Amino acid sequence: MADRLTPEQRSWNMSRIRGKNTKPELLVRSLLHAKGYRYRLHGASRGIKLPGNPDLVFAGRRKVIFVNGCFWHFHDCKVGQHAPKANAEFWETKRARTRDRDASQRRQLENDGWEVLTVWECELKDMSAVEKQLELFLTAG
Prior knowledge:
GO molecular function: endonuclease activity; hydrolase activity
GO biological process, one term: mismatch repair
Number of helices: 4
Oligomer: single chain
InterPro entries: DNA_mismatch_endonuc_vsr, Restrct_endonuc-II-like
Protein name: Very short patch repair endonuclease
Helix content: 40-55%
EC number: 3.1.-.-
Structural class: alpha+beta
CATH superfamily: VSR Endonuclease
C-alpha cells in the first residue's frame, strides 16, 4: 500500500491539527459577533482559568460554549463514529479518554454554576439551526 504514512509522517500531520481558532470555531465566533454578542476566548474569565478551556466564555451570563470536532470528541454522528483502521486500539483509547475528560469538565463547570453548550462540527452544515440554538442558549435564564 503506497498511500500508507510512516509514523513520522503521521506524527507530523497530527501535530498540524489545531485546538484553537479552528474553522468551525471561527464560524461560530463570527456569527455571534455579528449578532452583537461579546465574549472571551479559550477558557479565560476575569483571570480565572475554567475547566476544559471553553472556546467562548460569556462571563456576565455564566455561560460557556465548546465548538467540538466530531471525530476528535467521539460525537454520535457518522464522522464521530468512524473508527480508524490503522492503530485502531490507540485511537479508540485516545478518543474515549477525550470523551470522558469532556464529560468531567462539563460536570465541573456546571457544579461551579456555569451553563454549558456544545456545538458540534456536523451541526454547522445548517447555520440557521445553529443560530437559533445559540440564541436560545444565550437568552435563556
